[in-house]
Amino acid sequence: MTSKNFILSVLKIIGILVGLFLLLLLFYKLSTIIVYVLLAIVFSLIANPVVLFLKTKLKFKNTLAVIATLLLFLLLIVGFVLLFVPLIIKQGENLSLLDINSLEENYNRLLLQINVFLSQHNIDILKLVESSNISSTFSINYVSTFLNSIVSAVGNFGMALASVFFISFFLLKDRAHFFNGFTAVLPTNQKSKILTSIEKIKDLLTRYFIGLFLQLFIIFILNAIVFLIFGVENVFIIALLCAILNVIPYVGPLFAMLVASILIMISGINADFIHETLPTTFYVLIGMFLVQLIDNNINQPIIFSKSTKSHPLEIFLVILSSGVLFGIVGMIIAVPVYTVLKVIGKEFLPDNKLIKALTKDI
Prior knowledge:
Structural class: mainly alpha
Shape: globular
Largest sheet: none
Number of strands: 0
Oligomer: single chain
Helix content: over 70%
Number of helices: 15
Radius of gyration: 26 Å
Distance between the termini: 51 Å
Number of domains: 2
Strand content: under 5%
């Protein structure tokens, strides 16, 4: 290789690296818009069956069917907000979401009450905490920061909702136009495989996301019933938080129980700790555990197994591996991404023995 060719090769590599860096930088700068587009795609997958129903059964025109569908979902969202936001604001004030000093004072009082209870059983919790250095690694600010982050997210909800609905309108209305434009640029020899893959992915992901929202709603209702049975204050906000945390597979329910127990004990800080607060928290945790048993043995097998046509053990290993590699975000997106990869593998590598075994039900 001559020096000129070597220099050209180096320059080419540098150019590729610079191009990749600029592309990643562009994605980072446009990350919010990309998230809106992805959410719009997910929403359009969920809303498309409603559009098809209005067009085929009620004979709506395409544009009218899309508008009616978006209005229907908008009314559901507005109804949900009008129903729960006043409760969340009121109960959020009771939980001192914006008064960190008051929340921390209740937290410290709670620790003292726990210490008194355990001291009666010859357990010095304060000494144990100091020796284990837990107090230096945990702060009530973590809890308040988490709760306030949810409040902040609600504040940006309006802009996100408007953007997602605007993008979804055109995705649903001009679905055929986008599809025709997309198929026009596909390579002729691979067109049928790509189109088949897209159709299967759309069907599986639509079923998955609809089932996921149904799962979260069921968890919310069941947890709210448990809280109401045992007379817990702040029922709706705690049940809503627990449902949201269940988006994270396996780890989310455990964190939900931790958050729920802390909020329940802080809410009942003025009650008798030994005879009221502690037993109530214990019974509620048992109730939440039973809810998770129902979810793990009924809801999740239907959603993760039947909707994506994958074995429960297969799903468990995928979620666990994604969590190890990519953290919480990896656990959340593990099932949809794995489903997409399975469909692509079945269409483009149908003779591979491993892929054939994994995709036999697709």
